[in-house]
Amino acid sequence: MDSHRLIAFVTALFLAILIVLWSSSGSSKVSPFVYKAVAVFSGDSAVTGTVVFEQSSASAPVIITGDLKSLDPLSSRGFHIHQFGDATNGCMSAGSHFNPFNKKHGAPTAVERHVGDLGNIQSDKTGAAQFTLTDNLISLNGPLSIVGRAVVLHAVADDLGLGGNAESLKTGNAGARAACGVIGIAEFR
User: What are the residue boundaries of the Superoxide dismutase copper/zinc binding domain, all occurrences included (predicted)?
Assistant: First the structure.
């Protein structure tokens, strides 16, 4: 009788191992490193579209590509990563600019800037904005990760911290939050 229990145990263990191996051999790639993230703009605002963030390695810059529609034609808008990915109260729940180093607001190329300061995007005469940006400070991994935070499109142009007043050094005088999307992990292919 003991040999029957041993055979049953070994058989059950073998089947459990096979099930684990089979279930983990799916076609999607799983990696502890986040290579791609996406934010979808939709909801109360007329602005719709997507912003994709890609990073090839921990030391590589993040490439940001966007395709947004229904903006004011020929307008320049402030574009920032905000602290939280909370949309319970629209874009207002997103908190302030992502600023873990407690710096003043600035241009994306400035030494003194918030981590989330990405400058401006420009819409064309139809109100569409297709853009590609490269940023060396944000990341999809580690302490500067933007995953789970919000990307916010503001109502007016960002003065890049050069407006000569306290609000410029805090927000770039970019105005109200016109639209936003929460940044989530995307499937890596």
Answer: 47-183
